[in-house]
TrEMBL record:
Similarity annotation: Belongs to the G-protein coupled receptor 1 family.
Gene: CNR2
A Pfam family assignment: 7tm_1
Keywords, sorted A to Z: Cell membrane, Cell projection, G-protein coupled receptor, Glycoprotein, Membrane, Receptor, Transducer, Transmembrane, Transmembrane helix
Source domain of life: Eukaryota
Protein name per Swiss-Prot or TrEMBL: Cannabinoid receptor 2
UniProt topology in membrane: Multi-pass membrane protein
Organism expressing this protein natively: Terrapene triunguis
Parts of the chain that traverse the membrane: 30-53, 65-89, 101-125, 146-168, 188-208, 244-266, 278-299
Length: 355
């Protein structure tokens, strides 16, 4: 395999051509189409989630939905910053930007993706408290605490992501540069990998505990319940919860494992162009994760789906009112409007544990 030797930083400059591994027009077209489609879908889905949450005074006051909005915001930023930066570098091969501009873009990508994982961890903790301490959930998880946790997470994420721009880069510390990211110090990359792996492990551990609690509840209900109908209903809820959590873990690990594995591999072995190409394509899986998140965490919520139906209904009514007579207008106004479901996402899980 051909190997392009990555040079160390000299006078705050580097030869970036070794990092531009997509050579053929087919590769560039394929990655451009993939990133564009996934990025557009990601922006539309997460923007819809943000609108549904903040357009409803009732929903936006609930801590669970504040955490979901944090995830949606991070995924919107991830899709915009990642797609623009990735295509600008790998497809259009622009090298005219300075080291500071490049690290600023990279910091934006790191901030959004790390904040996405941080939001997932906060949501996992929310679900854990909901399952293990349902009676104290509203006391422990308050709106104020959720806002403080989100603020701390975002600030810590931004500081960590922009450390290379603030000086921890291979040009300033005169250390070996990463073979995957220009100007990035290998030690910083290893630290960021450890941070992401800790976040992922905490998410997996928390959801495994929730899944184990649901399994214990299923066994308990099999022994305790005597009414077949009630038992079957609760069993179906347990199965649905288990399937959801397994899906969550499978998606997170599938999207992040290849990228983290290749990053870790690059710390110990000199990479050839083929592996760098594989990494370029695998990095788009993180974008796929941001696209799937609103479907898994938000649009499966009965309350948000009800809000979406109400929004669609109001839009259709406005269109029909503008085209209808005054009599039809009066009839439409008198018709009842579907109310938003009162149950938050956590309530379904709480009900599973009440017997």
């Amino acid at each position: 395999m051909e190997r392009c030797q990555v040079s160390n930083c000299s006078m705050n400059t580097m030869d970036l051509k070794c990092y531009m591994v997509l050579n053929s027009l087919t590769q560039k077209t394929g990655i451009a189409v993939l990133c564009s489609i996934v990025g557009i879908l990601c922006v539309l889905e997460n923007s819809l989630v943000l609108y549904l949450i903040f357009a409803s005074p009732k929903i936006r006051k609930k801590p669970s939905y504040l955490l979901i909005s944090s995830l949606a915001l991070a995924d919107v930023l991830a899709s915009i910053v990642f797609v623009c930066s990735f295509l600008d570098f790998h497809v259009f091969n622009r090298t005219d930007s300075s080291k500071e501009i490049f690290l600023l873009k990279l910091g934006g990508v790191n901030t959004s993706f790390t904040a996405s994982l941080g939001s997932l961890l906060l949501m996992a903790f929310d679900r854990y408290v909901c399952i293990y301490q349902p009676s104290e959930y509203k006391v422990i998880v308050t709106r104020k605490r959720a806002v403080v946790a989100m603020a701390v997470m975002w600030i810590a994420t931004m500081i960590t992501a922009f450390l290379p721009l603030m000086g921890w880069n291979c040009c300033k510390v005169n250390s070996p540069c990463s073979e995957l990211f220009p100007f990035v110090d290998s030690k910083y990359l290893s630290s960021w990998i450890c941070l992401v792996m800790i976040l992922l492990l905490c998410i997996v551990y928390t959801y495994v505990r929730v899944l184990w609690k649901a399994h214990k509840h299923t066994v308990y209900m099999e022994k305790r319940q005597t009414q077949a109908g009630q038992r079957n209903a609760k069993m179906r809820m347990d199965v649905m919860l288990a399937k959801t959590l397994v899906m969550v873990l499978a998606i997170v690990m599938t999207c992040w494992s290849p990228v983290l594995a290749l990053m870790t591999y690059s710390l110990f072995v000199s990479l050839n162009d083929h592996i760098r190409k594989v990494f370029a394509f695998c990095s788009t899986l993180c974008l796929v994760n941001s696209m799937v998140n609103p479907i898994v965490y938000a649009l499966r919520s009965r309350e948000l789906r009800s809000s979406l139906r109400n929004t669609s209904s109001r839009f259709r009514k406005k269109v029909s009112i503008s085209e209808s007579s005054p009599e039809a207008d009066s009839t439409q106004k008198s018709s009842p409007i579907e109310t938003i479901c009162d149950d938050i996402v956590c309530n379904t899980d709480m009900n599973l544990l009440e017997g």
